Amino acid sequence: MRGLVHIYCGDGKGKTTASVGLAVRAAGAGRKVLFVQFFKDGSSSELKILREIENVEVRICETHYGFIWTMDDEELAAAKRDYTRLLRDAFRSAGEGVGLLVLDEVISACVCDVVPERELLDFIACRPEGMELVLTGRDPSKSLLDVADYVTEMKKLRHPYDNGVDARKGIEF
């Protein structure tokens, strides 16, 4: 049976949280899970517990570049190189019996042009037969939306950050 493509997008909280929940569910059902994060530094609390689950592998970029708008040309070129390598490594590993591949913030990485969306679309078209694929991030292109089987938009109606409340460990990260 063909695996399906899930997109969690929008400006609201919950995209990564939803993908983590699905990863835990898939692992609980005995599926091998590969959870790959773009843009984040690997310190968020959900990764700690995912790393403890036997059939879940977590990968991040070893260098954290920060926000795209703070990068100079040299840092941006390095980020493109490293994030594209991370994406391609995930594609290669997906053929090794991965039942669920989560590419957290890959949509944002495509929007910011640090990973080639065309390569992501090509992978989606020829991904392993039974593998489920989750993509998260803001502002997916029409091309990504068109190939998705599930599209869930998290819409911010209110967020404490707008009132000066900083991100809290265990809740936002």
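(the above was protein one; protein two follows)
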Amino acid sequence: MPKPDKNDIERLSRGESTRGKIGNRGVGHRLTQKERILFEAAKRQGFLKIPVKGIRKNVINIYQLWCQAEGRSFITR
């Protein structure tokens, strides 16, 4: 699989089609407003802080792809 592009990941997180065809219909990627806040904070801080409840795996999937595009380690708390 080719290295994902950051622009494609942003489009995927908004539910739009990507140029690199990196999405998978069986895996959730579209983020809600609360999940988007977590994702943006994770991009700034360098790690994803997962709350105890109220989160879907979509934000984890998107952050993992973002880390691949950045070439950094995938870290969650």
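Reviewer note on protein two: Residues 10 and 62 are 9 Å apart (CA to CA).
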